[in-house]
Write a structure and sequence with these properties.
alpha/beta; 5 strands; about 45% helix; globular; binds adenosine-5'-triphosphate; binds magnesium ion
């Protein structure tokens, strides 16, 4: 049913759980899977010398999150593509989903946000509201 799945990970347990579920789905459906992490733009006020260091650190962290997610996903029959995106996560995920012609987006209900009482994070809420394809929110 689903042939092109995209999952967002942010380094949180919820995100890794979403990756695990997306991996299971990709195996069962023989789907291709994109695993993406988006890092926020670095504020300009940091100044040029500082800026490059911060960007490098964020990209390194993003790759580490992707490495862990791929480990959790394991082997799938289709193609597994890790991608680092830039910008606010929901917008980046929606744009990537469109560009890749994805037919299912998988995310956690929560992420790294610290608001303990929150039932649904703002990024999953935005994606669920605006995506053109079905969205699976993993608890
Ligand atoms: P908030 O960010 O609104 O304070 P939160 O961090 O608890 O709350 P979300 O950010 O909406 O909740 O996270 C929900 C899910 O969205 C995560 O489990 C993950 O699947 C996805 N997600 C969040 N941030 C990113 C990101 N930077 N890159 C890729 N996916 C992300
Ligand atoms: Mg968040």
């Amino acid at each position: 049913m689903f042939k092109r799945i995209l999952v967002g990970v942010d380094g949180s347990e919820h995100g890794y759980k979403a990756a695990q579920v997306a991996g299971e789905l990709a195996r069962h459906m023989e789907a291709d899977l994109w695993v993406v992490v988006s890092f926020e733009e670095v504020p300009r006020y940091l100044g040029d010398s500082h800026l490059q260091g911060v960007i490098t650190a964020r990209i390194r962290e993003a790759h580490e999150i992707l490495r862990r997610a791929q480990e959790i996903i394991g082997a799938i029959p289709g193609t597994l593509t890790p991608e680092v995106l830039e910008g606010p996560p929901a917008e980046a995920i929606l744009t990537a989903a469109d560009a890749r012609g994805v037919d299912l987006i998988v995310m956690g209900t929560r992420g790294l946000g610290r608001l303990a009482g929150l039932l649904l994070g703002s990024q999953s809420q935005k994606v669920a509201a605006h995506a053109k394809c079905p969205v699976l929110l993993v608890r």
